[in-house]
Specification:
The complex is a heterodimer of chains A (90) and B (1001).
Chain A (H helix, E strand, L loop, with lengths): L2 E4 L3 E4 L4 E5 L13 H9 L7 E7 L7 E7 L4 E7 L7
Antiparallel strand pairs in A: 1-2, 3-4, 4-5, 5-6
Chain B lengths: L13 E10 L2 E7 L3 H7 L4 E4 L6 E3 L11 E5 L5 E6 L10 E4 L13 H4 L8 H5 L5 H14 L13 E14 L3 H12 L4 E4 L18 E2 L4 H14 L3 E4 L2 E7 L3 E7 L6 H4 L3 E15 L3 E3 L12 E3 H11 L6 E6 L3 H11 L3 E7 L7 H9 L2 E3 L2 E7 L6 E7 L6 E9 L2 E5 L2 E3 L2 H5 L3 E5 L4 E6 L4 E3 L9 H16 L9 E2 L24 E3 L4 E2 H9 L5 H8 L12 H12 L3 H4 L13 H5 L16 H6 L3 E5 L2 E6 L7 H14 L1 E5 L4 E6 L3 H8 L12 E7 L5 E11 L2 E6 L4 H15 L6 E4 L4 E7 L3 H8 L14 E7 L2 E7 L7 E7 L3 H12 L4 E3 L2 H10 L48 E8 L11 E3 L10 E11 L4 E9 L8 E5 L4 E7 L14
Parallel strand pairs in B: 1-7, 8-9, 8-14, 9-11, 14-27, 16-23, 17-18, 17-23, 18-19, 33-43
Antiparallel strand pairs in B: 1-2, 3-4, 5-6, 5-7, 10-28, 12-13, 13-14, 15-24, 20-21, 21-22, 25-26, 29-30, 31-32, 33-39, 34-37, 34-38, 35-36, 36-37, 39-42, 40-41, 41-42, 44-47, 44-49, 45-46, 46-47, 48-49
Helix pairs in contact in B: 5-6, 5-12, 8-9, 9-10, 13-14, 13-15, 19-24, 22-23
The chains are: A mainly beta (90), B alpha+beta (1001).
Chain lengths: 90, 1001
């Protein structure tokens, strides 16, 4: 039901987008050095926050670019969107 | 034709246009402008249905969307019918044919009403308590009878022939509800030049003002109807507003996204319905929303309050004023407020006898009560109706005085004859849409209703849905709040005349002189939940209002508690001594009123349900009698039956031909991704399990792609076209997701890599020719290609020409035979295919479909991702360790292959299975056990993933995943089926040509 502002295309209906889970999870540079627990932490564990969450979105039926959004999961309000590699506006 | 209960004048019906319709097989007459309910009432018909559980006779209670009783079935052509429609909303038309529901054999004589006698033993939660055990009785006994006895309407048996439509709409201001509040809000919003959409579920705008008594209600000296007419004309003239009647808002979602259903033809005679869109689903994005959804009158809850002839007071007024119908000849009114007196005066003025008003209040000095006194209507103050008599129609009411604290009745019982009892328990703000949008409610302890407190969207509520009552206040509030909401400075003067009102008093459950448990005070009419059911639920420990609702089914009928919910909450609050504000409400969920599946689906039916993708060679397959298989959105040739061949025979023939002479397959559906850029090799290294840096230009390599969790995700052959240019193939079904995943990694994890991906699946047609004669065929078809094994060995690629058309030829094989894949620009696909067919004719070239392809690869033990794998299978499980690079530092999924769980030795592993009897073909999906027991449960250690009869090996072969399978080779296992147990021997996965000689045949 949301309207999402794609940083490349502007405001579009949510049905053009796909959700990509929690943002800012950095893939470990040296996975082989990690213990099973550390790897599992990266692979499986997600915060699933009630409140402001930074998450990945893909404009899959549009420009196909990935970007990040800061969304309040309790009311679905999107506070900001920003490109990959950028920092959210606090 | 005049009906018995039609008043001689008045109403907004067109008396010159008589309409005939059928109800329960009998013909009746009404006028244009009537609803089915008003037309039935004009004919003196109150009994229209039976209740859900006890099959008690039920009559029309209301005049609108909140109707719980008068549900009817509309019969159209054979097999075409609309169930569960409210007679109070159906506008009659010539040819309308409606019947009652939930009664058998008829509404007048219903065998199910025997349940009424058993009602003491059918309490709340009866179904949960009774039909629990023995389990064996469930399927054939309990379920059968419950289904037969329960259920309301009947669903149609034929395909819906009507046309439905969807419409997207954007506006600055959406106003829901065109009663006085909505009309004033619209007028005000237009002053600011806003683009406005005003919708109302009823056929006419004006809301309840349409049937207000004109002697007591005036706006700017105009009668209510005159003011509505003038206002609507004014609105219609304005280009900035769109007006939609018969349009019900079903859902109010976040971001001011609303779904509404507009009825376009249901009210028209059948002949005018043809070829027209029946209903339109509107998907509205509004910058701002003004809710003016009004309020719903409450009934009173007392013993036997459900008889036909007991109606809401406002509904009776509406039937009299709007439709010119008197609902009875000898009327009593039971009220707790002044509004019911307006009904009394209206009826009295129209010459209908109002015998008595029973009022729970001590007194009232309002304009209307005083007028009633003047008119000589008998008022019983501080009294209550405690019981009613009459089976199919009310005949008598019993009245007693209320004790001082309203908890009991005292004194003598008075019996009053009547044929209609109007009940009025005050009004409940319609906050449904407000709460759907995420708004929070507050409870007014004095006035006994929930009202909007805090909203999160750009939205306001005005008028009685906001808890504002009284015409003057409603109009002023609508203007003031709209002005503030839209920052408008202009104001309009409204001069409103309205009756001075008395105070409102409330009793949730009217006390009785009977002992508790002997009364039947209905809270939810449609689902037959009584006050006693609610009390029982509370005694049995249900505390949460959501639990009480589900246990008693209160508010769960098709009216979704529009009538029942407030009293249910009130009774729970009283008994548990909880404040209503703390108790809260049950959740209001969409839709507000039922919408059809047809409207939801719109035009997306039949061939428009989903996209169909066809290959460039599709026409040829069709002409050559191919049967097609759906693979994702693709239509793939499945097999090509000859003469009277069945599928099995065709597949056997095709598979044999592919190995003995030549086979040809349309492989155009395989996903193709063009990969270019400086770091293309490095990129492939990271996404595939094997190494790519050293792949020579012009060579092909099979790759396996994992998820980060180490499980097999996709596979396919990738070809290096030049230094920094590859073309990757994916599985048919995985093409889009693989592309998405690769893009994801490039954009988010490895932005430093210079790699560009383009999907080219649709740009190329792929013709795969295999078999011992394939080389000879290709030699005939292509020019300038040297097919010698030295210059064009297995797993390599070359550019070539077919006539003047450029093509890419790969020597790769999914069948284990010598095999070539020709890729040409899609437009040339079919001609290349036909060329191959012509060239191969002398060698017996045979087109084969996906089923033969599956069989052929199974003979070679090649996996199909999604058949042998299911997202829980690693390459090691597949015994494909050879393709997993140990040298590469990292690739997607590598680390997960070293987790303790993925390294377990006893995981399910990929094996072959051979049956003892070579003719016995296993069933795909069948479970495998090591030890057979007499009956389940048995310890299941795996399942069959692929199974075929191999015409080339002349025996049954199967592939499977089995726990610890690698170590079980040669061991005997069992596949227990319904009637037999099949013995199997675990074998190698490669059944044919283990050395791979045929690739170079």
């Amino acid at each position: 039901m949301f309207i999402i502002k794609c940083p490349y295309c502007g405001e579009r209906d949510h049905s053009e987008f796909s959700y990509g889970g929690e943002a800012h999870l950095v893939r470990p540079k040296q996975p082989t050095e990690l213990s099973d627990d550390q790897w599992a932490e990266y692979l499986f564990m997600r915060k699933n926050i009630k409140g402001l969450q930074y998450e990945r979105w893909n404009h899959s039926h549009g420009c196909r670019r990935w970007f990040n959004a800061a969304r309040d999961t309790s009311n679905d309000k999107i506070h900001s969107v920003y490109k990959i590699g950028e920092k959210p506006n606090k | 034709m005049t009906s018995k209960y039609r008043l001689s004048s008045g109403g907004q019906i067109n008396r010159s246009e008589s309409i005939s319709f059928k109800f329960n097989g009998k013909t009746f007459y009404g006028y244009k402008g009537d609803t089915l309910a008003s037309a039935l009432l004009a004919n003196g018909i109150h009994l229209v249905g039976r209740s859900f559980k006890y099959h008690r006779p039920r009559g029309i209670l209301t005049s609108g969307v909140e109707e719980p009783n008068a549900l009817v079935q509309i019969i159209k052509d054979k097999g075409k019918t609309d169930p569960n429609l409210r007679a109070t909303q159906i506008e009659i038309y010539e040819g309308l044919n409606a019947t009652s529901q939930n009664s058998w054999p008829s509404v007048n004589f219903d065998l199910g009403s025997i349940n009424n006698l058993f009602s003491p033993i059918i309490p709340a939660g009866f179904y949960y308590k009774t039909f629990m055990w023995p389990a064996s009785l469930w399927k054939n006994v309990y379920e059968y009878f419950i289904r037969k006895a329960a259920g309301l309407g009947k669903s149609p048996t034929k395909k819906d022939p009507d046309i439905y439509d969807h419409c997207y709409y954007h506006c600055e201001v959406l106003i829901v509800g065109a009663g006085p509040a909505g009309l004033v809000a619209a007028k005000t919003a237009l002053k600011a030049g806003k683009k406005v959409l005003l919708v109302d579920e009823r056929p006419n705008f004006g809301g309840n003002l349409n049937f207000s008594n004109k002697d007591y209600n005036k706006i700017n000296e105009l009668d209510p109807l005159e003011w509505i007419k003038k206002t609507c004309l004014e609105l219609q003239k304005n280009k900035n507003i769109k007006l939609l009647s018969r349009t019900s808002v079903a859902a109010y979602h976040n971001y001011n996204y609303l779904i509404m259903m507009q009825n376009l033809t249901d009210h028209l005679p059948d002949k005018d319905k043809k070829e027209k869109i029946r209903q339109r689903l509107w998907k509205v994005r509004a910058k701002k929303v003004i809710l003016a959804t009004g309020s719903i009158e409450r009934p009173m809850i007392f013993d036997c309050n459900d008889r036909p002839g007991i109606m809401l007071s406002s509904a009776v007024r509406k039937y009299a004023n709007t439709y010119g119908v008197k609902c009875g000849n000898n009327i009593s009114i039971f009220t707790n407020n002044d509004d019911a007196y307006e009904t009394a005066i209206t009826l009295h003025n129209k010459g209908v006898k109002v015998k008595s008003v029973i009022d729970i209040r001590e007194k009232s000095d309002g304009t209307l009560t005083n007028k009633c006194r003047e008119l000589g209507i008998k008022i019983y103050w501080k009294s209550a109706v405690i019981y009613t008599e009459g089976y199919k129609k009310i005949t008598k009411i019993h009245v007693m005085r209320l004790s001082k604290d309203n908890t009991n009745v005292v004194g003598n019982k008075l019996k009053i004859d009547c044929d209609l009892l109007c009940v009025s328990g005050g009004y409940t703000p319609a906050v449904h849409l407000f709460t759907q949008s995420g708004g929070k409610l507050d409870y007014n302890e004095k006035k006994h209703y929930f009202f909007p407190k805090k909203n999160t969207l750009s939205q306001i509520s005005v008028g009685s849905c906001n808890g504002t009552f009284g015409l003057k206040k409603i109009i002023l509030e609508a203007q003031e709040k709209t002005r503030e909401f839209l920052s408008i400075s202009e104001t309009e003067q409204f001069n409103v005349l309205e009756p001075e009102g008395g105070v409102f008093e409330n009793i949730w459950l009217i006390p009785s002189n009977k002992i508790s448990g002997k009364t039947k005070s209905f809270v939810d009419y449609q689902n037959d939940s009584t006050a006693n059911d609610i009390k029982l639920a509370l005694r049995e420990g249900f505390k949460s209002i959501e639990h009480v609702k589900r246990y008693t089914t209160t508010g769960m009928a098709t009216d979704q508690g529009k009538i029942a919910n407030m009293h249910a909450l009130g009774i729970v609050s009283e008994i548990t001594n909880t404040k209503l504000g703390e108790l809260g409400t049950t959740t209001f969920r969409p839709p507000y009123s039922p919408i059809t599946f047809g409207a939801l689906v719109g035009r997306n039916v039949g061939q428009f349900f989903d996209i169909t993708r066809k290959t460039p060679i599709h026409d040829w397959h069709e002409k050559n009698n191919a049967k097609f298989e759906d693979v994702g959105q693709w239509k793939r040739a499945w097999y090509y039956p000859k003469d009277k061949e069945n599928m099995y025979d065709a597949v056997q023939r095709e598979s044999k031909a592919a190995r003995e002479c030549a086979g040809i397959l349309d492989a155009s559906t395989l996903g193709k991704i063009d990969i270019q850029g400086r770091d293309a090799s490095e990129f492939l290294n990271r996404v595939y399990t094997n190494a790519w840096s050293k792949l020579a230009i012009g060579k092909c390599r099979y790759g396996l792609m994992l998820n980060e969790d180490g499980m097999v995700y996709d596979d396919g052959v990738t070809t290096r076209l030049s230094e920094n240019h590859y073309v990757m193939t994916t599985t048919t079904g995985g093409a889009a997701t693989v592309m998405g995943k690769l893009e994801d990694f490039l954009q988010t994890e490895w932005p430093e890599l210079k790699v560009y991906l383009t999907t080219v699946t649709d740009h190329f047609a792929t013709v795969s020719v295999c078999g011992p004669h394939s080389k000879k065929i290709l030699e005939k078809v292509t020019q300038n290609i040297d097919y010698s094994d030295t210059s064009f060995p297995h797993m390599s690629f070359t550019n070539g020409l077919i006539d003047k058309i450029k093509c890419r030829v790969m020597r790769i094989s999914f069948t284990g035979e010598l095999s070539y894949e020709i890729n040409v620009q899609a437009n040339y696909g079919q001609s290349v295919w036909e060329k191959c067919m012509a060239a191969g004719k002398e060698f017996g070239i045979t087109p084969y479909g996906t089923e033969a392809m599956h069989l052929l690869r199974a003979e070679k033990g090649f996996i199909i991702v999604g058949q042998e794998t299911d997202g829980t299978v690693t390459p090691v499980d597949l015994q494909m360790d050879w393709i997993v690079s140990k040298k590469k530092y990292d690739f997607i999924g590598k680390r997960s292959l070293y987790r303790s769980d993925t390294m377990r030795e006893d995981r399910k592993q990929y094996v072959g299975l051979l049956t003892n009897d070579p003719k016995e073909i296993l069933e795909e999906g069948a479970q495998i056990v090591a030890e057979v027991k007499n009956k389940p449960p048995m310890n299941m250690i795996g399942h069959v993933t692929s199974s075929y009869y191999s015409p080339n090996l002349k025996k049954s072969i199967a592939l499977a995943v089995v726990k610890n399978g690698k170590k079980l080779k040669g061991k005997k296992l069992y596949v227990p089926m319904q009637n037999k147990t099949i013995e199997v021997i675990v074998s190698d996965t490669i059944f044919l040509d283990k050395e791979g000689k045929r690739l170079n045949a």
